[in-house]
Amino acid sequence: MGQHRGASGSRGVSRGPVIAVVAVLLVILAVLGWMRLRDRISDQGTAAAQTCVEGDAVLDVTADPDIALPLGELARRYNDSAPVVRDHCISVTVTPAPGESVADALAAGDPVHWTGPGPAPALWIPQSSQSLDRVADRPGLVNGQPKSVASSPVVLAAPPALADTLAGRPTGWQDLAGLQSDPRSLDAAGLSGWGSLRLALPTGAGSEPTGLAAEAVAAAVSNAGAGPVTAEHAASTPVVAALSQLGIGSAALDGGPPATTAAALVALGSQPHPAAGALHATPATEQQVYRATRSGAPLATLTPTGATPIADHPAAVLATGWVDETHSRAAAQFVEYLRQPEQAATLRDAGFRTEDGVPTGTDAVPFAPVATALQPSSGAVAATLTGVVTHPVAAANATVLLDVSGSMSTTEGGASRLRNTAAALTAQVARAPDYSGLGLWTYSRGLDGTKPYRVVVPTGPLTDPVAGVTRREALETALGGLTPATATSTYASVQAAYKAAVDGFVTGRPNSLLLITDGPNDDTSISSRQLLASIRDVTVPGKPVPVNVIVIGENSDVATLRQLAEQTGGTAVTVPTSDGPELEQAVGKLLS
Description:
- There is one protein chain.
- The protein is α/β, with parallel strands linked by helices.
- It is built from 21 helices and 20 strands.
- The protein folds into 3 domains: 56-151 and 313-349, Periplasmic binding protein-like II (D-Maltodextrin-Binding Protein, domain 2, 3-Layer(aba) Sandwich), CATH 3.40.190.10; 153-311 and 369-389, Periplasmic binding protein-like II (D-Maltodextrin-Binding Protein, domain 2), CATH 3.40.190.10; 394-591, von Willebrand factor, type A domain (Rossmann fold).
- Helix 8 (208-221) packs antiparallel against helix 10 (237-251).
- The termini are far apart.
- It holds the Pfam family SBP_bac_11.
């Protein structure tokens, strides 16, 4: 009989499935371990980057003082965010410095031989692009196109009573020269006791609003509209005359104009009696006036009609070669940070306009919309305009004594000496400011009865009427109709013209006599010694009349003429020919 297994017996477990399960678990654990290792490696790489394996780097920013304070606050905020550029921990420092000083240092040297204020910058934010134009002849200095981080229109800062009165007229940039030169202009406007507009035009480092205002005046008086002002505009008579009047008036202020815009604002706001103050107004940015009023200065803004110049605060990232790649990239990153809405709000709180809006207005500084922004001129034109303000063409009172003897018929360059000389004088008459005084005498022999000279156009302001036309037009017509005569009675003519100039001396203006001749005196009735003695006899202390002399070609009288010029405080110039540039240059110099 066969036997059966009991009910309590058991079978053995198969090892194959167990091994499979274990293998799967091992694979899963391996994958999970690899993923954790990968994440750990990634975290370690991120941590290494955040610990700035290349070390610390300082981004030096130089900014105009008007924007340096809010930029310093933004730099601290930026530093708190622990910025990293190319594995460097970046910290930003801001140094205030006027744009003119930084531009001069950038143009003169390099970071190793830096002579400017503070450390050599990797990022430069001047008040306006005028400062950038000062380094335009150094290509490759700035990386890319600078971006504006904030802007502020240029206005006039003035006591509220003056600002309100002139705004109500209204007053344009083209009106400022007349208000400056007319001793009763503000009285006529209803401000009794104010006299003329005493407009201070600072020209030291830290006075960019003066240059921007000069552009606005030039655009207005030359009808350049929104600009830009060109070299032709800058050299035109209306522009030179207007800026000269403003410059002369500013220089005549008690104590002279303050050196900087900031100093002018302090002086303007601290006068207890504005009408009798040393100055009445000064160009400034809207933001500068806003800051002054927040400090308690009793000032307001006057925005003259016409195109308004803008201080655009461009952020210029200096290129590699001046700084390394890390600093150049850090500068570009900081500029983008400044232009973000949160930072723009901080700049608006400080009185700047940004792409996102304008500050909240006050009674003194309303932050009104700019109707027409003035397009900036080139650096060369801006320098020319500022140069006229700094070195104005004075309102001269000059008499020209012109030799029309037979020798002036000598042909040079296809025309006679007389025709070439008349052309040079005509060009100067056209350039001369309206407020200048000018007259013309000619001489030879017997031009007016027995007199060897003739008063062709009496000396006086160019805008005054002479025989139904302006003196300027009378001079141009007379110069165009001159013809050579005969002899050369130089000495007798100089005696008469010099005495007339002394008798007609105009106080407050440079008076002079300009003698233009090409031949020796042939009137033997007066010797050279007698001439010099007679000039000495009629000279009046306190009424200087220099005799300036232009000698064309060879002249045996040149020693006497040089002595005449030296005795009276004048200048003697010899030009080789009448058809070269030397004659026109001499005429321009001696009549300016």
